[in-house]
Amino acid sequence: MRTSTIVCDSTLAVDALLRPDGPSGRLVRRFLERREFDLVLSGPLLEEIRRAATDPKVLARLELSVAEVERWVVSLGVLATLVGVEHDEDRTGPETDDDPVLVAAAAVGEAVVVTLDPELLAKPATGAFEAVRPEVLLEVLEAQAESSASRAV
C-alpha cells in the first residue's frame, strides 16, 4: 500500500471531529501536524465534508459552533491538495454517494481512500484505488516511521 497520497471521505472527517483521539482523529492530526502524506480533496468532496460536519445531528454531539466547524473544513481545504474534477455528462449508471471520493481518487491516479463507509471498503482494490479503514493506515504509517527511524540509526 502506497501511503503518500490519501483521499478521505466525509465519514472519516466527521469521525475525526467526533472522536479526536480515535483512529480518524489521530490520522487527521498526523496530516495536520506532521504532513506524513498528501491529503487530496476536490471541491465536491470538500462540500460533502462540510455538509456532513454541519449536519444538526453531528453538531449536537460536538462542543463546537457551526463557525468553528466551517473553519475546520476550510483549513482542511487550504492544507490539502485540491484536485479539479470535471462533470462527465456522458457517464452512465446511477450516481452514488461515493462519487466525490471516487472521482477525487481517480483524478490523482493512485490513492488510498480512507473511509468508514462499508460500501467503499467492500470495493475491490485496483492499481489506482484501495479503500482502507483509518486504523489500517495508522498501522502502516507507524511501521514506516519505525523503519525510517531504524535506518537513521
Provide tags for this entry:
153 residues; alpha/beta; Rossmann fold; 8 helices; 5 strands
CATH C-level = Alpha Beta
CATH superfamily: 5'-nuclease
Pick out the low-confidence regions: 89-95
Q: Helical amount among residues, as a percent range? A: 55-70%
Find the structural class using helix and strand composition. alpha/beta
The CATH architecture assignment turns out to be 3-Layer(aba) Sandwich
Compute the number of strand runs. Answer: 5
Order of helix and strand elements from N to C terminus: EHHEHHHEHEHEH
Rounded radius of gyration (Å): 16 Å
Mean residue pLDDT: 86
Secondary structure topology:
Layout: E1 5-8, H1 10-18, H2 23-34, E2 38-42, H3 43-53, H4 56-61, H5 66-79, E3 81-83, H6 99-108, E4 111-114, H7 118-122, E5 129-132, H8 134-152
Helix pairs in contact: 1-2, 1-3, 2-8, 3-5
Question: How is this structure best described in words?
Answer:
- It contains eight helices and five strands; from the N terminus they run βααβαααβαβαβα.
- The chain is α/β, with parallel strands linked by helices and 153 residues long.
- It has a single domain, classed as 5'-nuclease (Rossmann fold, 3-Layer(aba) Sandwich).
- The chain has a five-stranded parallel sheet, with helices on both faces.
- About 5% of the residues have low confidence.
